[in-house]
Amino acid sequence: MAVANPLANAHASIEMIDEADADLIVLPELGLSGYTCGDLFATEGLLRGCLDALSEIVAHTSGHGAMVVVGLPLSVQNALMNCAVLAAEGRICGIVPKSFLPNYREFYEQRHFRAASAVDPEVVEVLGQHVPFGTDLLFSRGEANIGVEICEDLWMPIPPSSHAALAGANVLVNLSASNETIGKAVWRRDLVRSQSGRCLAAYAYASAGAGESTSDLVFGGHCMIAENGSMLGESRRIGDGIDPVVVPSMSVTGDIDLQRLAHDRQVTVSFDDARTQQHEFRKVDCNPERNARPKLRPDLKRAVDGQPFVPSGERELEDRCSEIFSIQIAGLVKRLSRLPLGTKLSIGVSGGLDSTLALLVAIRACDVAGRERADIHGVTMPGFGTTKHTRQSADQLIAVTGITGECIEIRNLCLDTFRSLEHHPFGIEINDATTADSLQQQLCDVPAGTPDLTFENVQARVRTMLLMNRGFVLGTGDMSEQALGWCTYNADHISMYNVNTSIPKTLVRFLVRYAAENYFGGQLKELLHRVADTPISPELLPPAADGSIQQSTEAEIGDYELHDFFLFHLVRNGFGHQKILFLAEHASFTRNYSAEVILATFEKFVERFFANQFKRNCVPDGPKVGSVSLSPRGDWRMPSDADADAFRNGN
Predict the structure, then answer these.
(1) pTM value?
(2) Domains of the chain, with CATH numbers?
């Protein structure tokens, strides 16, 4: 920035335009003149120089492909106005004046400028062009509709961008000259992020930097891009610890997901209700034919989180786990308050992740509600697939938590059921002489991976029957299992209340570890970490010859990391086949997956997600904890017999 030197600023702007690989480039407020020109704004030399500088920038956009938004002072009807000019394809598409002029503390804009008003002309002549003018302009290109406001506009109770968003703007830009004072950056960041969320839009903010005059103020060059309440990117700035002598380039670039924004507005049906006829906007078409349709960038400029349910930062993850754990506890405390004192809270303790998390929630809920932990009745029900590892974990969990416990061997009950059904597990002959031990021995010879759904379902339903006859049953199944139908109908699928109902599998392990570190110590803490490291398995099929877990859920249906990724982008964002696979190719997963594995797992996800809606249509109550839930009473209502073909093959 060269204060009061428009041509120098134009040349610097053109360099930035050429360096930026972007479809929309936003420059700071009064960027051609400098914000701190003071009474020089009233001089003919500065105003003429700004128009000459604007002419160079407009000409440079010819054939460039990018839209550029630049700030300058402009004389309109004998008044000077602080304006934003949007240029593209060698022409000025429109000019938006500033609506609110700060005139307090360090700001004296009303000394130099007039604010936008209802008497402003709808068209002005600039550089020989008749150009749309006003605060009621939206600029369209492809699926993007761009609304423009300037600095102070954002800080008002109802920013102009709010009206623009209701009129259809999904990308909001702000040309700013915001000086740095203690704590101001935090407030500025919160404004940008919250306005993007309130407007269900993207918000790009570009502020003046260290090149401005420092007679009384220092400008930090704060640039940000937010999307529906989330910060996509943010530049360094003066004031955040950088060396003020060697100032880095203060810019930020990011990709906006217009499809996600459209989906969010579509499902938030109350959004459009706020629109009134008092805020009609004119739309300016900025579409060159080659950019008329949206595109998926092969060189994606935004990070794609491979675990969208799991925060990447350690502190954020801890805060997320704390909040979720508290929500689970609060939900169960309320439900317990409706049960007579002395009612047993019955829970199947398997030694696995899900049941352990549910048990921990139950313990904390009883502590909070003033109930005895002995009101929790933990039942271990070893079957034909139970391993020594999980059996020990389950027994120890009951012993060290102070709950009441019971162990019921289910193999004989299952064997009786096989006889009644005349079912031969894995083709093994069952007769009156068959015992649970003899059947267990024969099961050791069954090749790994041999299916027998009846064998699995009988064990699951026997366990549920035993739990249901012992008290108020606390469910343990998680949201990922609901999505895939990885549960037995009328068995682990059902309970009286399920605290894990909207917890994705990728987060369960972190919640168990969080509880271990923050609520429980000693032997229990060590035990919880042991559980957190246990492979995911329903343990309904025989263990390996060495007694280890042989039935791996993820080996059979694919990694939960991928399934949770697909679940998030299908349910939360409404994306189709092509978009989800594209994002998966760019996602930062914890493992490297080949394109073939991603595709095969996605097809498995779609197949199971559609085939198992009938199970989700009758799941028990449980607290919603995040933006995705599959409860048929709230977030996700879907026919059980919907066809999946469009989701397998669509875009």
Answers:
(1) 0.90
(2) 6-289 (3.60.110.10), 314-553 (3.40.50.620)
